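Hi V.,

You were right to ask for the full record rather than a summary. Here it is.
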Amino acid sequence: MARANLPFFISVIANISRSARRSYFCSMRKLSMEELNRLTVADFKNTQKFPLSLVLDNVRSLHNVGAAFRTADAFAVEKIWLCGITGRPPQREITKTALGSTESVAWEYVPTTLEAVQQLKAAGYTVVAVEQTTGSVPLPAFQPAPGVAYALVMGNEVFGVDDDVLALCDAAVEIPQFGTKHSLNVSVAAGVVLWDFISKITQAH
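Predicted structure:
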């Protein structure tokens, strides 16, 4: 929500009667497992995926790798490419964080990110770095093209996307931030970007 809209939003909430708010929130309940309609691993593997892949460029944290798997499962991503020093299943910390999604999400290990990006470009993917660069497009302004498959490159926790990899990318997007750090955890950033891309893809249909 834009900052300019916050005062209006707060004023609307304040004007809702206390009894109406109590009635609304008291009527809510958590959905049961059955109501969530969770797919089995077999069903997930057979379901249509969004035209998106994640490329993890030398991501050192096994927690981040596991979280990326879990996010990729949530958003029906085609594949995760694990590159360089990025850990790969089966490893205890990945498995613990992924909550079983290493079994549902397709993945491949490639010794270098350059090799993965070259393969993806040869296969017709548009490769987009999630990175702060002089040419980055703010994420809200980036519009995925219809019928185009995208590979999103997530960089190392300290050094970001490798410069040689960046040179091969077709574009770069940046998540607007308003705090003191201008830095997000790599798995958090992956979730933000995937949600944004998928929201735009589904709205276009």
